[in-house]
Amino acid sequence: MKTIATFFTVILFTSGSFAASNCAQLKEELKALQTAQQQIMLSLVNNHETFASSMEEYSSVVASAKGSSVNAVTAQMDESAQAFRTRGVQGKKMAVKLNAATGDLLARVASCLK
């Protein structure tokens, strides 16, 4: 996530003062964009794996639980669901920022190619 934040910082500070003579800097920004996108994809994959593991664990506990233990497992499942929803909201916000930064970068690349 630190690399993603760095990418956004680079894009925001360079977008206003970018001239055609600085087109060489685009190479570094494109590398940062690629790294940010790779981290987001890895995070998505890891979230799915975490979710699957959590469901397997809860399934195992519920299968062996009796009485009040079932209520405790249900509460834990609700907490996990909320945590995954929070991650989803954060991911959506990050995707919007990345999309805006990508659009800005592509516009500057296009101006360099003119």
TrEMBL record:
Residues in the signal sequence: 1-19
This protein's record includes keyword Signal: yes
Keyword terms of this UniProt record: Signal
Name of protein: Uncharacterized protein
Species: Bdellovibrio bacteriovorus
Highest classification ranks of the organism: Bacteria, Pseudomonadati, Bdellovibrionota, Bdellovibrionia, Bdellovibrionales
